[in-house]
Structure formats: C-alpha cells, structure tokens
Amino acid sequence: MKLNIALLAGDGIGPEVINEAVKVSDAIAKKFNHEIVWTPALTGACAIDAVGVPYPDETHEICMKADAVLFGAIGHPKYDNDPSAPVRPEQGLLLMRKKLGLFANVRPTFTFPSLIDNSPLKRERIEGTDLVFLRELTGGIYFGEKGRKDGGETAFDNCVYTRAEVQRLAKKGFELAMTRSKKLCCVDKANVLETSRLWRETVQAMEKDYPEVTVSYEFVDAVAMRLVQWPNSYDVLITENLFGDILTDEASVISGSMGLMPSASVGEHTSLYEPIHGSYPQATGLNIANPLATVLSAAMMFEDAFKLTAEAEAIRSVVNKSLEQGIVTEDLAVKGAKTYSTSEVGDWLVANL
Amino acid sequence: MKLNIALLAGDGIGPEVINEAVKVSDAIAKKFNHEIVWTPALTGACAIDAVGVPYPDETHEICMKADAVLFGAIGHPKYDNDPSAPVRPEQGLLLMRKKLGLFANVRPTFTFPSLIDNSPLKRERIEGTDLVFLRELTGGIYFGEKGRKDGGETAFDNCVYTRAEVQRLAKKGFELAMTRSKKLCCVDKANVLETSRLWRETVQAMEKDYPEVTVSYEFVDAVAMRLVQWPNSYDVLITENLFGDILTDEASVISGSMGLMPSASVGEHTSLYEPIHGSYPQATGLNIANPLATVLSAAMMFEDAFKLTAEAEAIRSVVNKSLEQGIVTEDLAVKGAKTYSTSEVGDWLVANL
Ligand SMILES: CC(C)[C@H](C(=O)O)[C@@H](O)C(=O)O
Ligand SMILES: CC(C)[C@H](C(=O)O)[C@@H](O)C(=O)O
C-alpha cells in the first residue's frame, strides 16, 4: 500500500519526536511492504518565522492532498506572555482545525501497567482506566463571534452550536461506544447553558438509533470531580470544545502516562495524529524528549487512517516492550536507572520491531 | 453583639446539616455573649413547592435585611433529568447570586491531617495543600444573552465581562493574597477568548498597586492538570464564573476532605455562607449526612461577616477535635469504627466547645 503522509513537525521538540515516529513508521512500512511518501510542511512558530503566518496555504494544500497528517507540537516561548500578539502559533492550530474540518478530537486515556505508579493518584483509583474523550473541535466559543464594545471596556465571546454539529460529533461517539463497552457519557452544563440544552436534547433524540448504548448525562463540574475520583468508571465521553479542552487535559495526568498519550483529530477531510504533549521548549535540541506519544500517534494513524491494524499492533507491542525493559527517556526512568536519549529510544524500537 | 442571620436550609439534607450548624452557632453565641436572631426563609425546590418560584421575593428581602446568610443546599431529583424544565431550583441559586450581588465565591481547599488518606491522590502530592479560589459569580456565560435561532436548530450563549467586573473580583484576589503568601494566579484562556484577554490585561494593570504580590497567568487547561499534579503549589487563584465552576469542584476532591469544605459568597450586600456539597437526596431524612462543612461555613461566617475570630477558631478547633477522636458520620469513619449520626456529631461539638 502507498501511504501519503503530510509531516508537520512544528516547533520545540516537535522535530525530534517526529523524527523517531518517522523512523519507526518507515521500519513498519518496510516490514509490511508499504511505501510511505512523507511530505514535510511548516506550521506554528517556525511557519511564522519563515513566511509570516502560522498555517500557510501551502501547508494546507499538502494536508488536503495527503492521506493522513502526522503532527508534532507547536508553540514558542516568545509568544507565551502576550496572548494578544497579532500573529500567534495557536492561531495556526485553530485555523488548521477549521480548514481541515477536524471536528472530532479523539483523546484516549489509559494506563500502562509499568507506569501506573507515576500517577499522582493512588493505584487502586486508576487501575483499569481506559476512557476516550471525543471533544468537538471546530465550534463553540472558540469560533463564535468575539470582540470588544464600549471603547474596549467590555469583552464578549459567543458560544454557538447547531444541531447538525452536535449530531455529527455524537454520531462518532455512539459508533465508538458500540466498538467498546457501549457506555456513552454526554458532558454538558445543561442546567445553565442553552448550547448545552441543545447538546443534551440532540443526543437524547439519537439514543433510539443505538438501543444497545447506555447513555448518561453529567454536568461538566461533576465530571471534573469524578475523573479524579473514579476515572475507571468512564468509557466514552462526548463534549463540546471548551469543556473538552479542560477535561481532556485533566484526564491526561491521572494515568501517570501523560508523556505517552496519542490523539487523533478527525473530520471532513484528512485526519491528523499528534501527541497530546506540547512543544516543551526547555528540552528543544537536547535529544531528551520522550518520543513514545508520537510513535503511538503513528500507531493510531496506521490503525484509523489506513485500517492497518497489524501494523499498529506491532508498534504498540514494541513500545510496551521498551517500557517493560526500561528503554526510556529520563522522564520515565526509575531513579538511578540508565536513561536513553530520544534517538536511542527510536533506534531500539526500530531494532526490536 | 446581636447577629441577624437569614437561614436558608434549602432541600435534601440541607435542613439536617443546617440544624447542627445552628446548634453549634447558638452554643458559641452563648459562650461569647452574643445574641443570634435566625430568620428562616425558603429557597430551592421547597420554595417551588410552596410558592411556585425558587427564590421568592420574601426570601430576598429577608436576606437583604440580614447581616449574613447561612445556606444549606438546594436541588431535588425530580428536576434532575430535565434541565429545560421552566422552573428549576438552580434558577433560584443564580437569581439569588445576581440579586444579592454575590460577585465573589470564596472556595478554600485545604487538608485535614487526619483525613489525608481519604484523598484519591497520594499523600505526598497533597500534603500542605492550602489554596483559595475566588470565582467570579455574577457574570460571564452564566448571565449573558442566551437562546435559539433558526427555528431552534442553533443555540447560543454569550459570555460577557466588563473591566469593572474583573477589577472588583481581582481586587479581592490581591487583597486576599496580601493576607496569605502573596501569590496570585489568574486563570484564563487568553490564547483563545477575548473575555480572557480583558481579564488578563486588567489584572496586569493592577499589579503595580500590589507590588508585593507575585502574579502568574495560567491557562485553564494547564490549571486543570496542575491542580491534580501539584495542588500545594497554588495559593490564591482568581477566575471567571464557568472556569471557576469546573476548577473549584475539581479542587474540592483532591484534599480528601470534600465533605468538610465551606465556602462564602460575598459582594455588594449581605454575604452568604454554605457547604460546597449538594443536597444529597439519597441521604435525606436519614440523619447520616456530615454536618461539618456547614459547621465550618458558620465558622467562616463568624470570622468574615462578623469579624469574630476567636469564635471562628473555637468552632474550627472543636471540629478538629471531633475528627481526631473519630466522632464522625459514616462517610468519614475508618472501616469498622463506630459511626455517629448527624445530630450526634452536632451534640458532641456543642458539648465539647
Ligand atoms: C493551544 C490551544 C489553542 C489549544 C486549545 O485550546 O484547543 C490546546 O490547549 C489544545 O487543547 O490543543
Ligand atoms: C447548580 C449550578 C447552577 C451551580 C453553578 O454552576 O454555579 C453549581 O454547580 C455551583 O457551583 O454552585
């Protein structure tokens, strides 16, 4: 099979972790007789530096033509203290989501047995955690009208959702639940927000089409609590953009495996795969960043974008082996144990596939 | 001193826990030579049942005339599955906040040494946690224009803030930080929201008036993570209404002492004191609910509303004693140990003041 993949390394440690994912993907392709054509493109701070905008049209065209996008991370400290700067890397991210129609962000949270003690939570609270958030990614308060009035003294952000937007996200949620334990939780704030009431009534109306799925409706504040108390009580959760931003990040730290969590953003055109961690500027160029979340994002890509399940499983299994054998970067190393560099971890994975 | 207190017991376990707080407050008043005049009033589901609205005008007048309001909890299961019912207990809460001008919700999260092992988090992560959220309570997306368009197919909620609203909340934050460790964290989403950019620029402009306070600015998703990872790294946090709703609930479960957390809502007129827990319908009438959060809310009231610090300390110290000696309701009891009823705990507190 020929796989056309757009490669958006981005900023900070992005290029380093992407490099290892490419090595592993190429090795898998060789093993399973596929040909991967990687097309690199600029996004984020490096795109601003090079061409003045964070998501250039050329990058967009490359993404649209590709079968999948593998993405590293974006962000640079020079933009951190000025969220109102006219051009910022994050704008590239939002524009990319919107223009690629990436309306569903798929964020799994699961535990690796060998990492469970890294969690801030007690072992008995997280054992067995295996949940997936579907976060709506192209609507809500992120993309509604925003601005100032009264000479700058009043600011507003409008949160808007249409029934169709809720339906397409919820449909993915029901479908995903059907492939798992058939439990779906709709997270909203329907006791206060009209958009949440639209979410709830839309999902309620879809229940009859998926009679096997048990749906629960929980308020976002209650979920923020229960995620810390009993994360393993959840399976598939669907929610709107802003709630998803907050809750998926909260969920990511409970498993103790945050540095390993992959994600996918799927929608109308090409799907995008990326680690959930950021550009980690302090580690840039040091060859110490953990490449496993990006390698596991590539596994997600093989499975979801190309339906190559055996290939995905092969990647996951070698990652598990590396964890068990302690072939890990310093963030995961047991005190006193030898640590490996970013590229050494990648080399080991390739050699042990 | 004569203390005029409006007593809003509310629904569910509200009346039971309020009853114990009244007993303890009366005993303290007697001991310190104060006279308390309690004026009961209806709010929540019980007000809907009695007079058709969740926050009757009469209740509002009683609150406005009082020196402080002591509040139990509201909410009833019959409203739970229909967030679009025309009259709901929560509307009473929002109306009460708005009409009483309760613009700042003060939500401390701290640990009780004897309860630390109840936390889902590991001991070393939470030891020393002592933070306070100031949540803006009368603005933002809760109170902006909301509704439907396109024949009900599109829903919207408008989030609006004025500079003056941010200033009055932030002022309380800076002042509170000055009485504590002089660290203030402004939580926003300034990389996406215009209202957050207004928050950030307003707080930045106030920094010069409090040169001793160190201010940090963090995105809401990052705070949702760090609260679980290093809760003891925070001191005073200020944030807007919806972020505060989510984060204060998240924070409440990390200490393991959720059933004990008091809160205050302060603002333009009378201040209100209430436990952070809800109306816990399943326990209603069983005399098993934990009254300590309400008793500690009364302590907060003595200290903040009446500046009666010795009285507040006396309450806190007897609560600590009850915890140490295991005179607690079933939710806090060590496995196998004797448990006490709601009223027995109250009686014990009164007897040991
Ligand atoms: C950088 C920011 C705009 C972005 C978001 O809020 O969506 C990030 O937090 C994320 O979750 O991918
Ligand atoms: C009941 C609800 C309207 C309320 C809120 O969202 O403010 C509650 O969650 C709270 O935090 O007091």
Automatic annotation (TrEMBL), chains A, B:
Major site of localization recorded for this protein: cytoplasm
Location of the Isopropylmalate dehydrogenase-like domain: 4-349
Pathways involved: Amino-acid biosynthesis; L-leucine biosynthesis; L-leucine from 3-methyl-2-oxobutanoate: step 3/4
InterPro entries found in the cross-reference section: IsoCit/isopropylmalate_DH_CS (IPR019818), IsoPropMal-DH-like_dom (IPR024084), Isopropylmalate_DH (IPR004429)
Binding sites annotated in the UniProt record for Mg(2+): D221, D245, D249
The EC number(s) this enzyme carries: 1.1.1.85
Keywords linked to the UniProt accession: Amino-acid biosynthesis, Branched-chain amino acid biosynthesis, Cytoplasm, Leucine biosynthesis, Magnesium, Manganese, Metal-binding, NAD, Oxidoreductase
Positions marked as site (Important for catalysis): Y142, K189
GO molecular function: 3-isopropylmalate dehydrogenase activity
Amino-acid positions noted as binding substrate in the UniProt annotation, renumbered to this chain: R97, R107, R135, D221
Family per record: Belongs to the isocitrate and isopropylmalate dehydrogenases family. LeuB type 1 subfamily.
Task performed by this protein: Catalyzes the oxidation of 3-carboxy-2-hydroxy-4-methylpentanoate (3-isopropylmalate) to 3-carboxy-4-methyl-2-oxopentanoate. The product decarboxylates to 4-methyl-2 oxopentanoate.
Protein name per Swiss-Prot or TrEMBL: 3-isopropylmalate dehydrogenase
Organism for this UniProt entry: Flavobacterium myungsuense
Gene (UniProt): leuB
